[in-house]
Amino acid sequence: MGLFNNRAKSGAASNTNARSGEIEFLNSPSTRHVDDNASNVFSAFVFVAVFAAVVAIGLQLTGEMSIWVLCAGLVFATIAIFTVHIASQWERDVILRFGAYNRMAGPGLYLTIPFIEHVALKADLRTMLTGFSAEEILTSDLVPVNVDAAIFWMIWDAEKACMEVENYYDAVSMAAQTALRDAIGRNSLSDVTVHRDKLDQELREKIEEKTSSWGVSIMSVEIRDIVIPKDLQDTMAAAAKAEREKDARIVLAEVEKDVAAMLHDATDIYKEDELAFKLRQMHLVNQSLRESSGSLVVPSAYAEGFVEKASGKAAPTHE
Question: Where are the transmembrane segments (predicted)?
Answer without folding.
Answer: 41-61, 67-87
